Amino acid sequence: MFVSDEDLMMKCCKGDMSAFELLVRRYQNPLINYIHRSLNDYHRAEDLSQETFLRVFKSASRYEPTASFKSWLYTIATNLCRNEVRNRSRRNTYYLEDLVEEGEDVYHTDIMRDTRYMPDVLLEKKEQQQIIRKAFAQLPENQRVALTLVTYQDLRYEEVSEILGCSVGAVKALIHRARQKMKKLLIKAGIGE
């Protein structure tokens, strides 16, 4: 039987640790992926996802089931990401991430015949990924966050508007501008039409 996030959170308010553990299992990977896309640092994303859940746990008694749990969770994560970006810019610290293909089943592929594994193809793909990440990093923060939440986290515009504290129309405009800017940056870099 499926229990809603809001019901689980209400159980957490009453001290039910198994309900909290279920919420963590339900959202840990999507949250890490969201933060990772925002910061481009997987290890820091793991840390901030733990910090997000810690804050959820500490403020469980203040949770109001009027808003969706998912929106509340992503609002906390978004605020932590913003703080991290702000702190990084003050420290002038930059994190580099290894560009590794995830999800490839290399063991069942004939690498010698598959052109995807030829060194020049791999290098070109890696270079394209770097260009895309660099272009994504050039987006204004609010556009980057909105685009990530809609495109990679599959949140509805209404949920994103709650997280960002703006109207649905503003979210649509942010995403449209983000896509337009990405398109321009990628064309300028030689990717796309």
Strand content: under 5%
- Compute the number of strand runs: 0
Low-confidence stretches: 92-113
Number of helices: 8
How many separate domains? 2
Return the average pLDDT rounded to an integer.
82
CATH topology of the largest domain: Rna Polymerase Sigma Factor, Chain: A
CATH architecture of the largest domain: Orthogonal Bundle
Q: Class by helix and strand content?
A: mainly alpha
Task: Give the SSE layout.
Blueprint: H1 5-13, H2 17-39, H3 42-58, H4 69-91, H5 119-138, H6 141-151, H7 157-164, H8 168-188
Helix pairs in contact: 1-2, 2-3, 2-4, 3-4, 4-7, 6-8, 7-8
Report on the architecture of this protein.
- The protein has 193 residues and is mainly alpha-helical.
- It folds into 2 domains: 1-98, RNA polymerase sigma factor, region 2, helix turn helix motif (Rna Polymerase Sigma Factor, Chain: A, Orthogonal Bundle); 108-193, Winged helix-like DNA-binding domain superfamily/Winged helix DNA-binding domain (Arc Repressor Mutant, subunit A).
- Helix content is 68%, strand content 0%.
- It contains 8 helices and no strands.
- Helix 7 packs across helix 8.
- It is elongated.
